[in-house]
Design a protein that fits this description.
13% strand, 16 strands, Fumarate Reductase Iron-sulfur Protein, Chain B, domain 2, 521 residues, Glutathione S-transferase Yfyf (Class Pi), Chain A, domain 2, five-stranded mixed beta sheet, single chain
Length: 521
């Protein structure tokens, strides 16, 4: 007979009418296979404590009523599986006032939706019968599947800082749904602009917690609404325009102030007895601002006997244009790059910038499809993905790695973690370095505030979001902050300087290169 297993729940308890402050009560219950959080709460209510308050209705992920915070992450209690011998923290959904225990007042969310007139606005009666084709309503259908659980509202890092200015992911989804509906006559794009469509960092946290729907608010609502805003002359934001102008004129979103990376290295960086060959895509930041980061990537690849080719005439990946809604410039740059890389015979394209690589992986194929072009034929990879999975971490040169006496915590870039599914790979690389001590921070995947054009378009908001991120990382007591994104690196360095934090910020490849060269951090 198998040993009986248990699960422990630390449940938030608070009655505003009777209690001075909240508390957590611990319940240890028997684990059963397939058990979800809602099962555990019902068991507690029926067998251990009938005073515990929580909300549920359907129990099948259709009503959204049972949304709570599970280990500080919003989710549906009826859809979140429990694991045996684990401890879970269950608290009320963030951003909403508590009625009692896990029950919150959703009226705050409902009122936000009400102000955008969340129904099909008509100027005259519809004909009967009213016929709509699948093509006419296809874009609106995904947005229509929202069950209004408000998990996305609780997860959004921008909304908590801009509650008055930004309607948030649920509201933007509703605006997109109505904006795509051919029957609706209101200017939903203008409403989206007024209600903060450019405040979204496009981090993707909303999609991550959208269970079981996985509605892609970033791509299907925010970025489409921004593109429509640009078409109507409402967008982009003033802070975006210089970058787009630079891209139109030079192919890069930032100007040349120092010798570009591509001019500091030869076309081919040879190694003895190469085990592989890749083309390295620097992106605008490494090419024109963070050349030292690019040199460190070259060092790591050379130490692992990888021949590197440099595409000297690449142009911007167009991430800035996609994120700001400037699709015309974005499409032009995509076609230039694809034609150039195919002409070079690229087989493997590697980049350190997750913004670049997620754009190459996710946006370039859509552009090529929309324009009737063939898909690109090369394999596109993030540098962490390449080293760990393609080259193979077991094949990496660890003999030349020298000790780094440093304690490091890690920030998961949104474009790497959520948009490419790469999170464990950077940690595996950090753990290769002798004497380096790695400490996880709480909410390591919390957005730093730089993405989605927010750093350029709404700078103060980006710094506020970054401040919350730095507070979490600082609590670890680490000597240094590591990440694997050139844009996050700049954001965290700037925010740390503004906040008085003294920790240095490194890319993972910076630390690997230091270890190979035997230099001190």
């Amino acid at each position: 007979m198998s040993e009986k297993k248990f699960v422990t729940l630390n449940v938030y308890r608070y009655n505003p009418d009777a209690d001075n402050e909240p508390r957590y009560e611990t319940y240890k219950i028997a684990y059963t296979r397939g058990q979800v959080v809602l099962d555990a709460l019902n068991y507690i209510h029926e067998n251990l404590d009938s005073t515990i308050a929580f909300r549920w209705n359907c129990g099948t992920g259709q009503c959204g009523g049972c949304s709570v915070m599970i280990n500080n992450t919003p989710g549906l209690a009826c859809r979140t599986l429990l694991e045996p011998d684990q401890t879970y923290s269950i608290s009320p959904l963030a951003r909403f006032p508590v009625v009692k225990d896990l029950v919150v007042d959703h009226d705050r969310g409902v009122r936000r939706i009400e102000k955008i007139r969340p129904y099909v606005e008509r100027v005259e009666p519809a004909p009967r019968p009213e016929k709509l084709s699948r093509e006419e309503v296809s874009e609106a259908m995904e947005m229509k599947s929202c069950i209004e659980c408000y998990s996305c509202v609780a997860a959004c890092p921008a909304l908590v800082e801009t509650w008055q200015e930004f309607i948030g992911p649920a509201g933007m989804g509703r605006l997109a749904r109505l904006g795509y509906d051919p029957r609706d006559v209101l200017d939903r794009v203008k409403l989206a602009f007024i209600n903060g469509v450019y405040n979204c960092t496009t981090c993707g946290a909303c999609k991550e917690v959208c269970l079981p729907r996985h509605i892609d608010i970033r791509r299907k609502a925010i970025e489409k609404l921004r593109a429509l805003a640009v078409d109507q002359g409402l967008g982009p934001m003033p802070g975006h325009k210089e970058f787009i102008k630079n891209a139109d004129e030079t192919g890069y979103v930032i100007g040349v102030t120092t010798t570009p990376f591509v001019e500091r290295v030869p076309k081919v960086i040879e190694v003895e007895e190469p085990v592989d060959e890749v083309f390295f895509f620097p992106g605008c930041l490494i090419n024109l601002r963070l050349q030292n980061v690019g040199m460190n990537v070259m060092e790591v690849l050379k130490r692992n006997r990888v021949r590197v080719r440099i595409p000297k005439n690449f142009v911007c990946c167009s991430s800035v244009m996609f994120r700001s809604g400037s699709r015309k410039t974005a499409n032009e740059l995509v076609l230039k790059n694809v034609e150039y890389f195919e002409g070079l015979g690229v087989k493997k394209l590697v980049s350190l910038c997750p913004g670049c690589m997620s754009t190459i992986k996710l946006d370039w194929p859509l552009v090529l499809h929309e324009m009737g072009r063939k898909p690109y034929t090369f394999k596109a990879m993030d540098i962490n993905e390449y080293l760990v999975s393609d080259l193979g971490i077991e094949n990496m040169n660890t003999k030349e790695l020298k000790p780094l006496n440093i304690t490091v915590t890690y920030h998961d870039p949104c474009h790497l973690n959520r948009h490419q599914g790469i999170s464990e790979e950077p940690r595996k690389l950090l753990n290769l370095i002798p004497s380096l001590r790695f400490i996880e921070s709480d909410e390591s995947d919390r957005c730093c505030g730089a993405g989605g054009g927010v750093r350029a378009g709404v700078r103060n908001l980006s710094y506020t979001i970054a401040g919350k991120k730095l507070d979490l990382m600082n609590e670890t007591g680490a000597d240094a902050l590591a990440t694997s994104c050139s844009f996050c690196t700049i954001q965290l360095k700037d925010a740390a300087s503004r906040s008085g934090y003294t920790q240095k910020v490194y890319n993972v490849t910076d630390l690997l290169a230091m270890s190979y060269k035997g230099t001190k951090p």
